[in-house]
Amino acid sequence: MLHRVGITIENRGTTVFYTCNPNSIGEGTGIMDINAEKASDTTNEIFEGDILRMPDRENFHSEIIGLVVYHNGSYVLASDPSNIETCSKWNLYDAVHSQKAYVIGNIMDNPELLRGYIKE
Question: CA of 79: how far to CAs of 7, 19, 32, 83, 103, in Å?
């Protein structure tokens, strides 16, 4: 039995099916990336699996890079997703609006941005 994952798009009476990797599908968080580096990116929704960068308020010349995950009923920015229970986590809304976090990639296209936290 063949099982394909993807999306269908209907346009002018034609339906087209696009296949995709099921691991690449992330749930929308409902939070917009208002702190994007480019003005054209300011309306992008943040998805589970996105990788965000934000300034480290404790170490002035440092930054925090984390992964958006759903954990204990809410979306958080996790500093070490391979150790989700013990790592530092920030509420996603607060990270974006108060800490100025912004999307720099996603786990499928840019896993190297997580600096070795994700185990292959």
Answer: 31, 31, 20, 9, 14
Ranges of beta strands (E only) in 1-120 are 6-11, 14-19, 28-32, 45-47, 50-55, 63-71, 74-78, 89-91, 102-106
- The pTM for the full model equals 0.72
- In order along its 120 residues, the chain shows pLDDT tens digits of 456 666 677 777 788 776 766 665 667 888 888 776 655 554 588 999 999 999 887 777 788 899 999 999 999 999 888 888 888 899 999 999 888 899 999 988 888 888 755 444
Can you name the residues that pair with 18 across neighbouring β-strands?
Answer: 7
Measured between alpha carbons, how far is 30 from 48 in angstroms, rounded to an integer? 10
